[in-house]
Design goal:
The chain has 373 residues and is of the alpha/beta class. It folds into two domains: 175 residues, FAD/NAD(P)-binding domain (3-Layer(bba) Sandwich), CATH 3.50.50.60; 144 residues, D-Amino Acid Oxidase, Chain A, domain 2. It contains eleven helices and 18 strands. A seven-stranded mixed beta sheet has the order 6-5-14-15-16-13-17, with helices on both faces. It has a five-stranded parallel beta sheet with strand order 8-2-1-12-18. A three-stranded antiparallel beta sheet has the order 3-7-4. Strand 10 and strand 11 form a beta hairpin. The protein is globular, with a radius of gyration of 21 Å. It starts with 5 loop residues before the first strand and ends in an 8-residue tail after the last helix. It binds flavin-adenine dinucleotide (FAD). Flavin-adenine dinucleotide binds next to helix 1, strand 13, strand 16, strand 17 and helix 7.
Length: 373
């Protein structure tokens, strides 16, 4: 059996990026993913320029579906506002393609990536971390948990608590027939803030693909199918859903956002990254960028540990420095303290004010910023 330096559990954007960076640094990573790629990942597929730069994907040269967005609409309380940029401030990709691309790139760099290898147990033994999978049992000195919301490494070592803020979401992604695709090809994405501010729906056109979905903070009385139907109704009424198009069935998923997420992020022999660490952004739920960035940081920590003996735990400090301890952001704190009507009024004002919408809502919360050329 090959001796591995690191086992990466999960091959989404976080795990593939970590394995890619580790292999590039000359280490021997083994990546195990339960799925066979290209696999479906429930996700709108909106990525920031920063995330693409982190994975060294040049949007001009990316060979798969990608749509640059130079505008974004916001609807709330009967009002609609649009923000425009001179250059792309975000991009739309198709997750099954994007994730497969990143996984293959990690493989090309030298990572041993095994698909259809669900991990069923992770334990700490005298000779290292033992990972039991459907494709064999492996041991390495370090494990990186990148298995998303149900990551077995997070369950084993992350002290996951029941106090976390979980977002539940449903999404449908449909590739349109050629005679319908032109109707959406140059459309801008739209975000629909829920009347009670518990989440938002979206309409994302990506070349000939449309992605429609809704995500809300889970809690008592939150009826996701009912909210989804209300969103679909408004999309039909506004003509955004082309006549006669049958959407692919909706799929559901849940994930933890970086709010009250007191997971243990690293120890002597493990790191958690991406959704396994609960790193998706508060309010917007953007998770691809944090998964990628944390994958890079985890790989750097593991390499520094091997070369200089730097504690792997330094990774956790870097995550806290960059993303905070999981506390609610400024806007979230204001909204939480205000009575409902005042919170809605604050959001209405923020969205109606061009600068606040551009810099605070789209820029800080959603990470949509045009890159300087
Ligand atoms: C409906 C919805 C829409 C979203 N839209 C966006 C968006 O537009 N933009 C954005 O930035 N973020 C979005 N997010 C969040 C984003 O999808 C996640 O934050 C991101 O995928 C996290 O990446 P990851 O690599 O940590 O985990 P994942 O992408 O979830 O990858 C985890 C991998 O681990 C594998 N795995 C799981 N369990 C095991 C196991 N036991 N053994 C082996 N492998 C395992 C899975 O097969 C999977 O491939 C959305 C989320 C949802 C639910």
């Amino acid at each position: 059996m090959a001796g591995y330096d690191v086992i990466v559990v999960g091959g989404g954007p976080g795990g593939s990026t970590a394995a890619w960076q580790l292999a590039r640094a000359g280490l021997r990573p083994l990546l195990l993913d339960a799925a066979v790629f290209p696999r479906i990942k429930v996700c709108a597929g909106w990525v920031t320029p920063e995330a693409l730069a982190d994975v060294e994907v040049d949007p001009e040269k990316y060979p798969l579906t990608i749509q640059p967005f130079t505008a974004c609409g916001f609807a709330f309380g009967g009002a609609h506002h649009e923000t425009r940029w001179r250059r792309p401030a975000s991009y739309g990709i198709v997750r099954s393609e994007f994730d497969h691309h990143l996984l293959n790139r990690a493989r090309d760099a030298g990572a041993d990536a095994r698909e259809g290898a669900r991990v069923t147990a992770v334990t700490r033994e005298r000779d290292g971390i033992r990972v039991v999978s459907e494709r064999g049992v492996f041991t390495a000195p370090v494990v990186i948990g990148a298995g998303g919301h149900h990551c077995p490494v997070a369950k084993a070592f992350g002290q996951v608590s029941g106090q976390e803020q979980v977002v539940i979401a449903q999404e449908s992604e449909t590739r349109l027939p050629p005679d319908r695709a032109d109707a959406v090809r140059d459309a801008a994405p739209e975000l629909y803030v829920e009347p009670d501010l518990k989440g938002y729906g979206w309409y994302f056109p990506k070349e000939d693909v449309i992605n429609v979905g809704i995500g809300v903070v889970s809690g008592p009385g939150v009826d996701l199918p009912q909210r989804r139907e209300a969103l679909l109704q408004s999309l039909r009424t506004s003509g955004r859903l082309p006549e006669g198009v049958r959407l692919e069935p909706f799929r559901g998923h849940a994930y933890v956002v970086r709010r009250r997420a007191p997971r243990r992020l690293a120890g002597d022999d493990f790191c958690l990254i991406g959704d396994a660490a609960g790193l998706a952004r508060d309010l917007s739920g953007e998770g691809i960028g944090p998964a990628i960035r944390s994958g890079i940081l985890a790989a750097e920590a593991v390499v520094a540990h091997g070369r200089r003996g730097t504690p792997i735990e330094s990774y956790a400090h870097e995550i806290v420095r960059r993303y905070g301890r999981g506390e609610t952001g400024w806007l979230g704190r204001q909204l939480a303290h205000l009575p409902d009507a005042c919170a809605r009024a604050l959001v209405r004002v923020m969205l109606a004010t061009g600068a606040a919408r551009r810099h605070v809502v789209l820029g800080r919360i959603f990470g949509m910023r045009e890159v300087s050329s």
